[in-house]
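Example 3.2
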Amino acid sequence: MTITSFFTQIDHFVWGPPLLILLAGTGIYFTFRLGLIQIFQLPRALYYLFNKEQGAKKGDVSAFAALCTALAATIGTGNIVGVATAIQAGGPGAIFWMWIVAFIGMATKYAECLLALKYRVRDKNGFMAGGPMYYIERGLGIKWLAKVFAVFGILVAFFGIGTFPQVNAITHAMHDTFHIPVWITAAIVTTLVAMIILGGVKRIATVSSVIVPIMAVLYVGFAVAIMILNYHALPAAIMLIIKSAFDPQAALGGALGYTVLRAIQSGVSRGIFSNESGLGSAPIAAAAAETKEPARQGLISMTGTFLDTIIVCTMTGIVLVLTGAWNAPDLSGAAVTNFAFNHGLGHSFGATIVTVGLLFFAFTTILGWCYYGERCFVYLAGIKGIKIYRSVFIFLVGVGAFLQLDLIWVLADIVNGLMAIPNLIALIGLRKVVVQETLTFFENLKKETVTESYLLKERS
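Structure, written as tokens:
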């Protein structure tokens, strides 16, 4: 048995039915208990995203910058490479299950980010500190479980989403597209990461606020262009995604190896890897936001899952199916998406778009996850050892380029699943707090609306 196959078995155990049920059950509960908040309150959430709150409490960064920091950590290789590996493992139906996990995940993201604001504190350096560690300890009162989450959070930063998949994807994509040696790209990325993360959350948020929106719009724009150029095949591609989600054998002409369970597992695990709903990472960034209303930041953070999976991942998935790249032989990782964009936009140009997008998406993910892991480390060990944490993180970024791709994704899946478990336990345990905070917030909004209407009538 190889080391990869050994960890693959662990991965299948971690992402087995119990965790899938826990993730889905938590999302479904909040979806219906909060009155389909991800549908009816999405317009309000998008409005809040671009309009600063009046009289907001002091935080470390603006609400928009906090979201961009979270998006920096979520929009990465999962949107380009992860979607490709999910479809190759589970068939096009995996995309459908990514949609489902994203839809219910929006409610989960709202709940966990609301709790992050409610239970946040200021650390000894004067920075806001929050996230699952704090609402597990201060809300549930279970300090050992908070420490377990923090340990898993550091492991994800070191060996999961934060380093290996991102830098490996960057270096190999640059080599395949521009023929730049892997070691050169690895050295440049490592140096830039070191320069930025030493500036702390404000520098990370500043960089993310510029890069993430621009690259997301450009990437989505080129994906839409491929759909327009191949509009005649678009309906069939969407139907294949939906049909193969429920009956892959029939939809894919009896193709071997694809089952409904495999499609669900691939879609859910890669969907969580991409948008991180339920993982407990985004609340760490949300806790730094300038706001006085936990529910308001919960709504803003909820849009992250919508933008990440419903928009960006969907673009990648449809292009992969539309062009037939998902079924291309002897291709894996970013090469699959490169093939799809080359087919859709023309030789070399399409690969350039994917590589540049992957470069910036993955780079900002490294920055975001350095911050997440750092906050978990500070929770466990205090601020004195922060230089040690950053040094280890920078070292792992440097070596991540030289590891095997299959093993990287398996390790990332495992630690992601382990991190989600204590966070989901906390969400279930604090569900009444989420509901009450939400009801109070919207009741106050109604009162404010009535008061404003009355004052307008009096003035007229």
